[in-house]
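ok here's Bactericidal permeability-increasing protein:
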Amino acid sequence: MVTSGRMSPWCLLTLLTLVPLTLSSNAGVKVKLTQKGLEYARQIGMTTLQQKLKTIKVPDLSGTEKVAPIGKVKYTLSGMQITSLGLPKSQMGMVPGTGVSLAIGNAFLSLHGNWKVRYLHFIKDSGSFDLAVKDLTINTNIALKSDETGRPAVNTVSCTSNVGSASIKFHGGASWLYNLFSAYIDKALRSALQKQICPLVSDAISELNPHLKTLNVLAPVDKYAEIEYSMVASPVVSKAFVDFGLKGEFYNIGRHKEPPFSPPVFGLPPQVNNMLYIGVSSFTANSASFVYNNAGAFNLFITDDMIPPSSPIRLNTRTFGAFIPQLAKEYPGLMMKLLVKTTRQPIISFQVNNVTLQASGTVTAYAIQPNTTLAPLFILNMETSVSAHIYVTGVKLAGSVILNRMSMSLGASYVGPFQVKSLDNIFLMVLKVAVLPKINAHLQKGYPLPAIGKMSLVNTQLQVLKDYMLIGTDVSFRG
Ligand SMILES: *[C@@H]1O[C@H](CO)[C@@H](O)[C@H](O)[C@H]1NC(C)=O
Ligand SMILES: *[C@@H]1O[C@H](CO)[C@@H](O)[C@H](O)[C@H]1NC(C)=O
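and the structure:
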């Protein structure tokens, strides 16, 4: 029979109909930003904005005004520089469907510059001036979206600024002139300032994007795995929250194969005490299990040197021979080796306050012959259930497991019949001293959570709920 390497069109069609299923855009990880989180963003943002606005460069202004009774006066204002600027009052809010709003009120600034006038064709006068602006207001709406790489992006959708009252003080020159003149200059300066503010605010907002782009959309874990945290859709903004849906899926490094299951439908409770709530679903955990299982990371050789020296139970044919007479006879005085393998991916389930991992596998026992060849002795089927304790450390999730129960049945024996039950204590010991510590050492290293820049987590709690873990946390970008 000849088998063709080409796929039949029929087969391709079947595959194509499967695509929408496997490309399911359900989020494996959900993040909720609260008003408290927005408030922290405002505090950080205002420092940046204040610095930005201090860089306002007011271009030189010149013009001609008719001033009674002297006639045309030509004026020039130059060398204007901001001497102080304050943004004492600001507020950020959610704009459902769009993003967030930023309202700044009572802002003030003062500016120093030089003035020069010419009138009656030949009279020149000059000096300096100080302008003080009070009641400056800025109102802006900022859209929050997902960019083409699944990272958050912001842009200004509207901005208005209004310069409330301004007062100007001239130094040098003739005072009668100022009185005639200040109204014109005041107006020209206000409109010049007003023109500068919104573009600078808009710039400051755009400058957030490089920071937002540091979201770890592909977070490296270890030599086997990476986690994808790209956003599956643009954030959803409601009255009190911004909700982000992230993929939250483990992949084998460089080989992105979808698992045969998809994220559960879950929603985060409307809690408000922390800045952020992160929901990590059982899908994310099971995608990890899928990846490590595919990579063969759950297959483990166990040798006697992995058993503590203090243990009376050794991995040799003497220990096992006590329960399997034929083994003692056929392979006397040999060391043994066990191969533990999963037969399918371990299943992780989240119930309230309980994370359980259920694994099915086999244990193959070998005698190590004098010429180092392995002689298979028997194969046992093993079902184990472990409970996990999960915690947050740094910006990572870590854990440890303890054994709930284990059961074994005979798969095959090459050394005659024996009571599998009689080996229970030996294998319980092997699990406890050789297998679980390996798993725990790995779990302890942790798995990165979604993060932006040099974010650290504070006031963090973790709760296990049905189908997901809820992490409530504040964040800090200081040090
Ligand atoms: C968690 O659930 C598993 C399976 O339902 C159970 O065996 C285990 O005892 C539970 N653990 C706790 C701490 O409730
Ligand atoms: C190793 O020794 C065993 C038992 O004596 C024998 O059956 C086997 O063929 C040997 N293997 C090699 C590679 O020499």
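+1. The domain at 36-211 is CATH 3.15.10.10 (Bactericidal permeability-increasing protein; domain 1).
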